[in-house]
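Below is one protein, fold included:
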Amino acid sequence: MTADTGDLTRHALLRSVLSVLFIAVLLFAPAGTLNYWQAWLYGFVFVAGTAALSVYFLKHDPELVRRRMNVGPKAETEPAQKIIMFLVFSGFLLLMVVPGFDHRWHLSDVPVWLVLLANAMVALSFAAFFIVMKQNSYAASTITVEPNQPVVSTGLYGIVRHPMYSGGLLLVVFAPLSLGSYWGLLVAAAIMPALIWRLLDEERFLKLNLPGYTNYCRTTRYRLIPFLW
């Protein structure tokens, strides 16, 4: 392990620990109790998924991890993307906060089978993230183009242009149900316009800055959902 890789690993570990603590607060503080099995299960699936990705790619593709750690509104260079990422991040926070209040006030009665199915779909979203990052080492968290960056057009990218967003869509839609909340679906619906805005703005940027991307858009018809859009 080189010094740079060691620093990256320590940085990633620190961020992971802080993220776990932050997620725990978001899940349990609004609920007002630790007696919230849906949050424990969702938290386990979410943390296990993120940890597995971090461990694998720190070993096999540390540069990808470095790219993905530069995240958030401040990391974006395009003004529109700064606004979009603020909206998206706010929405993701509310995806965990609203179900907690829902649990506290007993507003939803999501059956156990649906909670379990939703968690399976959340796990599937992380499987999609893994495949995308395996297929595209340039799948950064910000919208940017690096020197000699290729257009990836095979694998999941041969089915939809933005498979990372497809995985994100699964996570957004099923996270509230996995937390036992129907009201959280309103937050998921509110996030959708920001995700679509980001996707379309990213396409505009890539067409201008990534050679071959315009032709790729002509050959891969669907953006997000196969056979639909």
Notes: The longest helix spans residues 3-31. The chain has one domain: 3-219.
